[in-house]
Write a structure and sequence with these properties.
Elements: E1 22-25, E2 28-31, E3 56-63, E4 67-68, H1 79-94, E5 103-107, H2 113-126, E6 135-138, H3 144-157, E7 163-171, H4 191-195, H5 200-210, H6 215-234, E8 245-250, E9 257-262, H7 274-277, E10 299-309, H8 310-316, E11 322-331, H9 341-351, E12 361-364, H10 369-379, H11 392-395, H12 399-417, E13 423-430, E14 434-442
Helix pairs in contact: 1-2, 3-12, 5-10
Length: about 450
């Protein structure tokens, strides 16, 4: 069977920006309407043009390793320790002084927001940031880390600050996925509102069944994710982006504490094959196609990027990893949550003044193989352009950090490819039926 990007359909042959895909509405199909996102106003995100000194650029990008929740390397590591590591290393990489940062935004999903922002505030102070540097958190479900980057970019573009840090963090060991909703009885009377509370695995089953993503294809997609991630790790591709963390790990049986340095993603499974995955039982429906093997892993991790204007980067003589070129959010019927990237990606690409053909790398979050494969097919994305170093099925999905993690990995891969790549996209669905995407442009070598 062909890989997801090789799937063809009449709709997927057009590589440019496409109209909104139609979604089923009982017996009839009704087109999905996309609401415009005004994160700072559309004027914040310039369409493709000659480089401006007011462009928002990224000069530093790093992440922790991704560790399996509850049993991985970070199961005994507090979230604030992960935040501490990435914000401190971001400053080390760039030489920018902590007191020069004017705002910090971190995506996070599952813990109480007041608790997490206090953890972030304390971690920054311990990392050497003076109390004068503020921090806040943002929650757009699984796209929280990407939204944090968009928020800081919008603030810089609007002139609120010149230098900011954006990123995300999640400890799914400490704060596991707990899908809660309103206790208002009026909400229970509305079917679509209740769909917000559907288990995410059921929404994946809905996508697979409604849009024809068979079990075999899901397993092929998942096996490819592990194979690509394993190859990337063995080639040392993640070395530059991962911040090693010295931490304590407690043996769950003996209680013995062990010091260890965590510098590798621990969810990658060598030897994963479609045939092996085909033996796994469905998780969410007795006769379903979604399994633990073709779904993302719950993960503990953090990531961060340092952003500023091009003018500020040039003044400081800092190499530029990439320019923030566009951002878009969409909403979809909650029961089809996973199809959102197929709308968000072309919307963000169009806002950047580009077409899908212009994009060299697509980092499509692999919440589930069903929805990621659907996105690739719907948009006609070539397999070789999608998740070249694996995705969340192999590396994990630390919800609040994933958007930032994808951005960090994308920027480093664009840098590695030199003149062979220029534009990259991060696209993701989110719980409750939303999606987001962002476009980044790598700085040409002679312009560094």
């Amino acid at each position: 069977m062909a890989l997801p990007g090789d799937l063809s359909s009449s709709a997927s042959q057009q590589k440019g920006v496409q109209p909104s895909p139609a979604l089923p509405d009982t017996a009839a199909e009704a087109p999905l309407e996309m609401e415009r996102s005004f994160a700072g106003g559309t004027a914040v995100y310039d369409r493709r043009s000659s480089k401006s000194m007011d462009d928002v650029v990224i000069v530093g990008a790093c992440r922790t390793a991704c560790a399996k929740a509850k049993k991985g390397a970070f199961k005994d590591t507090p979230a604030d320790e992960l935040i501490f590591a990435v914000v401190k290393d971001t400053m080390r990489r760039t030489g920018v002084q902590p007191d020069e940062v004017e705002d910090v935004c971190l995506g996070t999903v599952f813990p109480p927001s007041s608790k997490r922002v206090n953890e972030a505030r304390m971690a920054m102070i311990v990392a050497g940031f003076p109390p004068s540097v503020p921090v806040y958190t943002v929650n757009r479900q699984c796209a929280a880390g990407l939204q944090a980057i968009a928020n800081v970019a919008a603030g810089i573009k609007a002139g609120f600050h010149k230098i900011g840090i954006a990123g995300g963090v999640e400890s799914m060991t400490t704060n596991p996925l707990d899908w809660e909703g309103s206790e208002n009885p009026k909400m229970k009377e509305h079917e679509v509102a209740q769909d917000v509370l559907l288990p995410l695995g059921i929404t994946s089953e809905n996508v697979a069944e409604t849009y024809g993503v068979p079990r075999e294809l899901q397993d092929v997609f998942a096996a490819a994710s592990h194979a690509k991630a394993l190859a990337a790790r063995e080639l040392g591709k993640f070395r530059e982006e991962i911040v090693p963390i010295e931490t304590i790990w407690k043996d769950p049986v003996s209680g013995e504490e062990k010091k260890m340095v965590v510098e590798d993603d621990d969810g990658i499974r060598p030897g994963t094959t479609p045939e092996g995955l085909a033996k796994m039982k469905p998780c969410f429906k007795k006769d379903g196609t979604v399994t633990a093997g073709n779904s993302c892993q719950n993960t503990d991790a953090a990531a961060a990027v340092l952003m500023m204007t091009r003018r500020e980067a040039k003044r400081r003589g800092l190499p530029i990893l990439g320019t923030f070129r566009g951002f878009a959010t969409v909403g979809v019927p909650p029961k089809f949550m996973g199809i959102a990237p197929s709308l968000a990606i072309p919307k963000a690409v169009d806002r950047a003044g580009l077409t899908l053909d212009d994009i060299d790398i697509f980092e499509v979050n692999e919440a589930f193989a069903s929805q990621a494969a659907y996105t690739c097919r719907k948009l006609g994305l070539p397999a070789e352009k999608v998740n070249p170093n694996g995705g969340a099925i192999a590396l994990g999905h630390p919800a609040g950090a994933t958007g930032a993690r994808l951005t960090v990995s994308l920027l480093h891969e664009l840098k590695r490819r030199g003149k062979e790549a220029k534009y990259g996209v991060v696209g993701m669905c989110t719980g409750s039926g939303m999606g987001a995407a962002a476009v980044f442009e790598k700085e040409d070598g002679e312009e560094q």
